[in-house]
Amino acid sequence: MNFLSNYKYKFLFNRFYKNKMSVRKYNLKRSIRKVGIIFENDHYFDETFIDELIENLNIRKKNIYLMNFGKNFFEFDNSFRFEKNDSSFLGKISGNLRLFLEADFDLLINYFNSNSYEINLFSLKCKKKISAGFINTDSRVNDIIFNFSPNKKKLFIEEISKYVKIEK
Prior knowledge:
The protein is an alpha/beta fold. 34% of the residues lie in helices and 18% in strands. It has a single domain (2-16, 31-164), classed as Rossmann fold (3-Layer(aba) Sandwich). Strands 3-2-1-4-5-6 form a six-stranded parallel β-sheet. The protein is globular, with a radius of gyration of 15 Å. The mean pLDDT is 77.
């Protein structure tokens, strides 16, 4: 049964990617106001990591949204958790995930290091100006790709800050 689920998400990802593909224009000189973070491994996240990200990106805590594909729920003000029943067989989204996907982020951070079509599909469906992620994910999902492990949280914060810093 897991094979059918993987095939379904692979098919939906490829179909959605072909339909959505267009030249996107983005300007990093404008400020980043709203950030979405998709993650699947709960050990990547803690309150310290979020606080450092907020400080370095100079954004408000209420403007960070988390989407959790992991087993444990990370407690945060704007956090959503992926449940299997939130996605129909044809890929239609319902529940709280719909709110996350329609949030229109300035920056979407794909903080996972897997090539799962399921998580990549939802990342691709998010409304975003620009997205950043890691090398082991599908390269079609991210605009900025980091070549190190998500376990290196401090390095990630330093690098993402370089891309979104605004000259004043």
